[in-house]
């Protein structure tokens, strides 16, 4: 996945840094929370952030499987990007296998770990 | 890379472009001479290659086009044959298209997931890395003599059909965009909408024929696209309303601004126009067209005015009615149809006294349910008139377990539940000939990056709703 990883240039990301340490757990919380918000907005089956975090099946479910159209998951990616200052790799957006809460949080943690955000 | 300039005058553009081959309906002498020796499609290929455009930083030259052409030759592609381009990135798709034209073949561009009509079965397929699968059914398809490209459409009955775009129509569309967008070879044009859609394809082709650099950053990378706009890395951008709305949510990351932002494939609300102007410093231009015609209207209000060569036959100025157009090049239409110079758009518009048209609604065709057509206009109209309802989407789905039987669904988009009285009034007023629909409510219909209904997501939502017993969720 690493070769597909891209990050924001400049120090903008750090200034936004609402996800301080950037561990996979923190990113999982963030992505699950944003997904829960989106599900409410689009009127899909509403899972709370806690429900998503507690259920491995939900964490590994393609976002399309929650009823998100492509526009919805792109908006979710934008929000996650705005929150973290990191840009999700292309494969986590277009591959159903990685377009999941787990896939996105792992990719974000990898980005943060590589120090590409500054 | 970008000039970030204001639009120039026609005279200035003319002076600047002097000496360059002029693509479009007014061809240069060299192009006219060439047309005596080349077919229309090979000539179109040469016009694109003459532009020497760069696509996503790389040249659209021998490396890309040559590799695709060699693969198609090895696959035995003959003049007039259909070549399916699917599953390709933008550079490969454009390179494959030009390669097919050089062989006088007819490219068919389609998303990988699209169900294709029978004419597209068994044709040569060009895949990633210039891998071509030879045709398995080489039966010739009639009526493609002047066709530049084929695109699938779902058609009025839900059965996929192939729409033809003629070479002359493509050149006329390119001229229309070039004129209105004031494109020059110094522009870098971002087309983040899919090139498998006629809007994105048309703008991209116009950019290539003008010699602009082309950027195809996909809509999934909305933040990257916003940064390209903020840093002046692109000068013109072709968006959809949905994508423009997403971009507004991205924080500014630079002081530059695009020269022009166009929204096609859907309407632009005043609120979006204002929000976009506040965020990006430019008001939105609007475009209108169809798979059959390409872009035919451009402007700052409504759907704009007809581009050069297009005339509005109906409605008259100051009147409302179906938009009927005379086009500068024949509309080839779906395979099997007779080309026509008079195009009935199927869209209801209001035409201002000054000629600007405003889209009112799609004149929706009936749905086919269990092998018969049903007219849902009365039902959708009644539901759409209820307080708080922002959209109504009828659709027919096979019944779970017994797919031979189909059911009619109507999904109502509304933030608040429908009132019981309203509901009873609508249902009791339905004509007896209309099968009782399953009416569901959602707060927001799923939409794709073009702002169009994401049918797969909606079906997933409906099935999920049914599993949980929400047969009539109000």
Automatic annotation (TrEMBL), chain B:
AMP-dependent synthetase/ligase domain location: 140-329
InterPro entries the UniProt entry points to: AMP-binding_CS, AMP-dep_synth/lig_dom, ANL_N_sf, ATP-dep_AMP-bd_enzyme
UniProt cross-references to SUPFAM superfamilies, sorted A to Z: Acetyl-CoA synthetase-like
Alphabetical list of Gene3D superfamilies matching this protein: N-terminal domain of ligase-like (3.40.50.12780)
Region listing for Disordered, in residue ranges: 1-39
Pfam families, per database record: AMP-binding (PF00501)
PANTHER family cross-referenced by the UniProt entry: LONG-CHAIN-FATTY-ACID--COA LIGASE, NONRIBOSOMAL PEPTIDE SYNTHASE PES1 (EUROFUNG)-RELATED
Name of the featured protein: AMP-binding protein
């Amino acid at each position: 996945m690493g070769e597909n990883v891209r990050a924001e240039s400049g120090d903008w990301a750090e200034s936004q840094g609402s996800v301080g340490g950037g561990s996979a757990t923190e990113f999982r919380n963030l992505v699950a929370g944003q997904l829960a918000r989106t599900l409410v907005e689009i009127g899909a089956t509403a899972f709370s952030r806690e429900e998503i975090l507690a259920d491995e099946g939900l964490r590994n479910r393609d976002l399309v499987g929650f009823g998100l159209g492509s526009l919805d998951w792109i908006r979710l990616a934008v929000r996650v990007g705005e929150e973290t200052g990191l840009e999700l790799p292309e494969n986590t957006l277009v591959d159903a296998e990685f377009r999941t809460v787990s896939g996105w949080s792992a990719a974000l943690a990898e980005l943060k770990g590589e120090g590409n955000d500054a | 890379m970008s000039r970030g300039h204001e639009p120039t005058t026609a005279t200035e553009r003319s002076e600047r472009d002097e000496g360059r081959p002029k693509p479009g309906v007014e061809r240069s002498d060299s192009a006219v001479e060439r047309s005596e020796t080349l077919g229309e499609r090979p000539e179109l290929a040469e016009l694109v290659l003459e532009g020497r455009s760069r696509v996503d930083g790389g040249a659209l030259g021998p490396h890309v086009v040559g590799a695709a052409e060699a693969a198609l030759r090895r696959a035995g592609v003959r003049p007039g044959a259909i070549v399916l381009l699917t599953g390709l990135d933008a550079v490969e798709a454009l390179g494959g298209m030009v390669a097919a034209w050089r062989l006088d073949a007819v490219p068919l561009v389609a998303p990988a997931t699209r169900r294709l009509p029978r004419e597209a079965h068994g044709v040569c397929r060009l895949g990633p890395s210039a891998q071509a699968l030879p045709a398995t059914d080489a039966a010739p398809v009639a009526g493609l003599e002047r066709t530049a490209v084929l695109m699938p459409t779902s058609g009025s009955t839900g059965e996929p059909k192939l729409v033809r775009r003629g070479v002359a129509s493509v050149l006329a569309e390119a001229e229309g965009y070039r004129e209105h967008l004031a494109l020059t070879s110094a522009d870098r044009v971002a087309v983040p909408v899919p090139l498998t859609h006629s809007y994105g394809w048309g703008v991209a082709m116009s950019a290539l024929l003008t010699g602009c650099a082309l950027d195809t950053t996909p809509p999934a990378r909305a933040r990257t696209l916003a940064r390209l706009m903020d840093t002046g890395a692109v000068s013109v951008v072709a968006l959809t309303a949905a994508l423009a709305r997403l971009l507004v949510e991205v924080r500014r990351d630079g002081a530059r601004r695009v020269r022009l932002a166009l929204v096609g494939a859907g309407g632009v609300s005043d609120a979006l126009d204002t929000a976009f102007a506040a965020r990006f410093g430019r008001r939105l231009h609007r475009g209108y067209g169809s798979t059959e015609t390409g872009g035919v209207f451009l402007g700052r209000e409504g759907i704009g005015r007809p581009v050069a060569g297009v005339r509005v036959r109906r409605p008259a100025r100051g009147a409302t009615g179906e938009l009927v157009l005379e086009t500068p090049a024949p509309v080839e239409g779906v395979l099997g149809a007779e080309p026509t110079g008079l195009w009935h758009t199927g869209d209801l518009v209001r035409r201002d006294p000054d000629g600007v048209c405003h889209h009112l609604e799609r004149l929706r065709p009936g749905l086919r349910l269990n092998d018969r057509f049903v007219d849902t206009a009365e039902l959708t109209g009644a539901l759409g008139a209820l307080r708080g309802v922002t959209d109504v989407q009828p659709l027919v789905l096979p019944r779970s377990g017994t797919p031979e039987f189909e059911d009619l669904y109507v999904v109502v988009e509304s933030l608040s539940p429908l009132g019981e009285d309203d509901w009873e009034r609508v249902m009791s007023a339905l004509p007896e000939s209309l099968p009782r629909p399953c009416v569901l409510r959602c707060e927001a219909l799923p939409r794709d990056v073009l702002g169009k209904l994401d049918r797969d997501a909606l079906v997933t939502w409906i099935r999920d709703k049914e599993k949980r017993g929400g047969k009539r969720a109000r």
